[in-house]
């Protein structure tokens, strides 16, 4: 393990193999996940995800919204392949995710990356920023150590941690929460993924830091053509970064549609209660022009 900083290259920047636009849809079809219920008697079961179906088209930004316990994080685990559905399928193009094993799953993780909720627990406290971001560059892209270090500096600049050389040698405890989450995002970008699954990426950050991370996610999606599944209980942050929204309650999708339109005209009682739980004086405005369109008054 190398913990020494290596200065960023000033000539030819390191880059992964030529990136082609993502043309693969991520399709969730009738996904169900049932667990054994602890402490509720023999044979008791709990359905965390119940017959969920939707498609993330290339370049789309989908919001998955629900309160704690609604099944959001379980669904994220199914999509990223860390758990398998009890029934139903997850497909990325012609790849059946729930049938993948070891090597195939590693390759899939190069295409679909996770950004975790907890920036404090997502980073190994003994590893420098440089080492943390280098590993996927080497393990998935196959870059040499020299090229991986160059890419680390490139990624740090992309996520707004500059000068890169200053941050590369830092350990997690030397970073703020917002800086840690930017490192987590840089690590997710290291293998040049097609899809980012962001599970409550700003919920543990101070309010003053959230807008910066949300703005970063939105910019990365626009500049890199990424597909984004943004998982949150916060309807306002979903409005900032997503085009369409799915509302999840007790493992089932109870409402879906264009984000701004759903927030302005919620139909399901559960969606209305989620909106009533937050201060949203500007959300339920009549749409101007096309259905679902309104002036964007949310600061990024």
Automatic annotation (TrEMBL):
Native source organism of the sequence: Rugosimonospora africana
UniProt region (Disordered), positions on chain: 1-22
Show the Gene3D superfamilies listed in the entry.
P-loop containing nucleotide triphosphate hydrolases
Q: Which InterPro entries match?
A: AAA+_ATPase, ABC_transp_ATP-bind, ABC_transporter-like_ATP-bd, ABC_transporter-like_CS, P-loop_NTPase
Biased composition (Low complexity) is annotated at 1-13
List the top taxonomic levels of the source: Bacteria, Bacillati, Actinomycetota, Actinomycetes, Micromonosporales
| Keywords associated with the record | ATP-binding, Nucleotide-binding, Transport
Q: Which residues form the ABC transporter domain?
A: 29-275
Molecular function terms from GO:
ATP binding; ATP hydrolysis activity
Please give the name of this protein.
Dipeptide/oligopeptide/nickel ABC transporter ATP-binding protein
> GO terms for biological process?
transmembrane transport
């Amino acid at each position: 393990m190398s913990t020494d900083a290596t200065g960023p290259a000033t000539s030819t920047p390191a880059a992964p193999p030529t990136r082609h636009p993502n043309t693969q849809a991520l399709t969730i079809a009738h996904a169900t996940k049932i667990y054994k219920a602890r402490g509720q008697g023999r044979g008791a079961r709990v359905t965390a995800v119940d017959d969920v179906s939707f498609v993330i088209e290339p370049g789309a930004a989908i919001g998955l919204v629900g309160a704690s316990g609604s099944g959001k994080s379980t669904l994220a685990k199914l999509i990223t392949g860390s758990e398998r559905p009890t029934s139903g399928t997850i497909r990325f193009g012609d790849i059946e995710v729930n049938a993948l094993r070891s090597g195939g799953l590693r390759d899939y993780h190069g295409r679909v990356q996770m950004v975790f909720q907890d920036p404090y627990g997502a980073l190994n406290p003994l590893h420098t920023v440089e080492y943390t971001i280098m590993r996927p560059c080497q393990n998935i892209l196959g870059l040499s150590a020299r090229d991986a270090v160059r890419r680390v500096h490139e990624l740090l600049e992309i996520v707004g941690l500059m000068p890169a050389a200053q941050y590369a040698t830092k350990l997690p405890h030397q970073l703020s929460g917002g800086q840690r989450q930017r490192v987590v995002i840089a690590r997710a970008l290291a293998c040049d993924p097609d899809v980012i699954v962001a599970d409550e990426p700003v919920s543990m950050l101070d309010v003053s830091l959230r807008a910066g991370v949300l703005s970063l996610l939105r910019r990365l999606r626009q500049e890199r053509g990424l597909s984004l599944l943004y998982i949150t209980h916060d309807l306002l942050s979903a409005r900032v970064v997503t085009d369409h929204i799915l509302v999840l309650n007790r493992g089932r999708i109870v409402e879906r549609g264009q984000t701004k339109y759903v927030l302005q005209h919620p139909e399901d009682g559960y969606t209305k209660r989620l909106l009533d739980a937050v201060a949203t004086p500007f959300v339920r405005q009549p749409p101007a022009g096309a259905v679902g369109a309104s002036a964007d008054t949310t600061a990024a």
